[in-house]
Amino acid sequence: MTSTPHHPDLRSQLETLTTEAFRPELAEIDQSPTLDIARVMNGEDAAVAAAVAERLPEIAAAVDAVAARMARGGRLIYAGAGTAGRLGVLDASECPPTFNTAPGQVVGLIAGGAEAMVTSVEGAEDSAELARADLDALGLTADDSVVGVSASGRTPYAVGAVEHARARGALTVGLACNRGSALAAAAEHGVEVVTGPELITGSTRLKAGTAQKLVLNMISTITMIRLGKTYGNLMVDVRASNEKLRARSRRIVALATGAADDAIERALTATDGEVKHAILSLLADVDGPTAARLLEDSGGHLRAALAAARG
Fold it and tell me: What pTM was estimated for this model as a whole?
C-alpha cells in the first residue's frame, strides 16, 4: 500500500485547500439559535448550484464522452473514498431501477469496499494500489469510463483510479471541489466545482458533497438520455419491480400515448411489462415482437424506432 504522507506534510496540503479553510466569522455558531444555524446552512447550500453552473461546459463534454463509450458497450465506473465514494455507489445503485441498466453497467467503487459504506475503513483512501486492484478486478477495458470523485482533489484512491484507468485507455473524469487539483489534472476531463469553505471546517459532506451529488446526477441522467433510456422526460426504461413502479409504468404509457386504461393493460401484457415496447406498440400500432425488433434495430431509442415504424 502507498505510504501515508507525513502528518506535517499532509497538514500543510490541507491548509491550502479552500474546502478545508477555517471561517472565523462562524467560530461561535454553536451558540446561535437553531433557526439561525439553519438559515446560514440554507444560504450556504443556495450557492452550490451556481458553483456547478460555472462548470457546465466541462460537465457536458464529459457526459458526451461517457455516452459515446457506453453506446459501444462500455461501463460507467465511479471511484472515491468516504462521502465521495458513497455518493458514487448511491448514483450507481439507482440506475438499474430508474433506467433498467444491466447489472454491472454502472458501478460504484468505494475505498475499503462495502464495509466503507457505513463505517470508516482505516487507510483505504490513502491507497492508490487499492484503486488499481479494484479496477483490475472489474476487468477494465478501453470502452469503460472512470469518474474519480474527491472533494479535496488529492485523495490517493481517486487519483490512483483515474491514473490507472487512463493508462489502460479508458475515458477518465476527475470531479473535485478545489482549483488546481491533482485529480482534475490526472483526468482527460477535469471538473472542479469550487464550493468554498464549509460551515463546519473541513466537513466536505456538506457543500462539496451536495455539489458532487448534483454533478453525478447530471453524468448518469444525461448519459442515459443520450442512450435513449428516456422518451422526452419520461422514464420509459423503468424497471417495474414493485407495485409502485408498476403503477408508474402504466402512468408513463398513458402520458406518452394518451391511450385508454384497457389498451394500456393489453399493451403491457403483450410486451411483458416493458414500458418502451408498450408505448411503441400503441403509437405505431404494431404487435409486441415487432416492437421489440424495431427497438433492437434502433439501439433502444424509442423516437428512432417510431420513425422507422412510421416510415
Answer: 0.90
